[in-house]
Amino acid sequence: MLLNTTHTSKENKNLITDLVGKPFSFLQSVRMKGVGSKRMIIDEVSPNMASILNTIDDINYGNIELRPRGIIIHIIKGLKNFAWVIPYYQLVIYKVNGTSIHSNGKFIHFRNNKTFKENKSFFDKLLNEKVKYDEQFNFSPL
Questions:
Q1: What tens digit of pLDDT does each residue of 48-67 get?
Q2: Domain assignment of residue 140, yes or no
Q3: How many domains does the chain have?
Q4: Is 35 in a helix, a strand, or coil?
Q5: Is the pLDDT of residue 80 over 90?
Q6: How crowded is residue 65: how many other Cβ atoms within 10 Å of its Cβ?
Q7: Rounded distance between C-alpha atoms, residue 35 and residue 73, angstroms
Q8: What string of H, E and C letters represents the secondary structure of 16-70?
Q9: Is residue 31 part of a domain?
Q10: Are 119 and 38 in contact (CB under 8 A)?
């Protein structure tokens, strides 16, 4: 779900909390050694998300925030902020010349450069959190 988060509103906050849970507490985030990625360069997005990118030849940046039941991708377009909220059960990650994150027919591709390589440990943490979430619903056949 794509939300305009330029101005804080209770509706957006409640919607985000319902989809991906409350933010990790300070102690939890310290134990996890951080719950946010460094900013990364956005290379490409799906056509239905093109409106949230800068139309001029500016570099588009995004970062990822971990939540207990999903992630939030924060994107800045000029003076506006957008948040793409993705629950873990809808999250698909491809590692092809950078990383491509897909959900509900939309995608965002982050460029493979120095800032992306600095986020390797964050992506490992993200995948571990997704696996932990998926294991809750793992029903093994008898």
A1: 888 888 777 778 889 999 99
A2: no
A3: 1
A4: coil
A5: no
A6: 18
A7: 12
A8: HHHHHCCCCCHHHHHHCCCCECCCEEEEEECHHHHHHCCCCCCCEEEEEEEECCE
A9: yes
A10: yes
